[in-house]
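Subgroup meeting minutes
Present: P.N., E.W., G.H.
Scribe: E.W.

1. P.N. recapped why we're keeping a running log of single-chain structure predictions: easier to compare across weeks, and new members can see raw inputs and outputs side by side.
2. G.H. added today's entry (473 aa).
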Amino acid sequence: MLKKLNAILNVIAIIFLLVVSISITKLNILPGKYYYPLIMLVLIMMVLFILSIFKNNKKGLLITSIITSIVISIISSLGLIYLNSTNNLLDNISFKKEKSIYYVVVKKNSDYKELSDLDDKKLAIMENGSTNYQKALKEVNKKIDVNTVKYKNVNVLANDLITEKVDGILLNSNSKRILDDILKDFRNNTRIIEKISIDVKQSKENVTVSNTEPFNILISGIDTDGDINSVSRSDVNIVMTVNPKNHEVLLTNIQRDMQVQLHGTTGIKDKLTHVGIYGIDMSRQTIEDFLDTKISYYIRVNFDSLVKVVDTIDGVDIDNDIAFKGYTRNFEVGKLHLNGKEALEYARERKKMPSGDYTRGLHQEKIIEAIINKVTTSKKILNNYSKFTSVLDEFIQTNIPSSTIKSYVREQIDTMPSWTVISRAVDSSGSALVETYSMPGMNLYVAFPDENSVRTASTIINGMLENKKYDTI
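Output recorded in log:
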């Protein structure tokens, strides 16, 4: 009986070890100095279990073999959880489609309850609508016949709905949020009768940078929670320049209200935060133009991303430079430990900051630096590893190839280098209420870039891409 039980448990252990070795090989993040000894150990154990099946006859040895096979099976099953969660993360994180949301909006006290009620009615649309906007209009036209009325001025469009000159309007969800924030009459007197989701066309450019070559990543933080796939205004716009040779990371923050030329357009400029509503590729290309540099990759996060990531790594530590009273706590000057909600509030606060959005950008960089330091140095993440990878999978979007991520993880495990993180910001030279590309006819707060600061930022970023150390540029 013991011999039969031993044989069964040994076979199970062998299967577990085989699957583990295949998963480790597929994951490909272990340096050779760890990988080959580990695989050799697994093979030796498999041989010993095979021999135990055919050679063991003594009761004491059989009991020892049974206990060993049970322990190895348990350890292997736990290892597979870690390996599979990592593989799933790397396989899925780069394949999230962006979606742009559009609304058909009517006056609150109208008789229109659903889209079909607008059949053969007047629908106001923006004349400068993007490709996705036109796709949304086509979706409307598939369901009903409408008489479209084109507008160049979003203020007039909104007012004509309130005064019942048109029956409904087609708006990007972000444009509606802006109108709700600025025009009380619009927020209080309108309602949504149809929601339209459009897949945002993303660049097919397949960029792969070697693990020894410097590169730029755009860190884009959108002003929403929930689904990371929904495009929205980009409140965080940080170019992270990574130099693997010198182990330096440069964080260059650009204010959300900075005036920029939307990539591929001429004429009226926009504020950087609005660029996010056209998708992450548009943000990346617009900032490439702005800083005259190449941005190969992006990482896109939202409010939930930051809260979940910080909580999963048991909080972050920062050195706070400005005391202020927040909703979650008082942020005193000095060393602070922040949980997820506190980190989000710290990264978002600007009204209580002496330099407003500029200071907020620097605080966002502090949070990112704290996360980098925690992830690259703390062993506590291993205790919550599966949850950490599931959070990254659900709340982060990137175009960094899994092979590139694996090569950097492998390098980090191999040599455990310490990284130097430098923070900078692009200065503005003034501000004003001006018209923007995304909201024509409506004057919004815009910060004007300081051209000298832009050139300096560009020089430093491109210098680091040429493998120069930060303090020599």
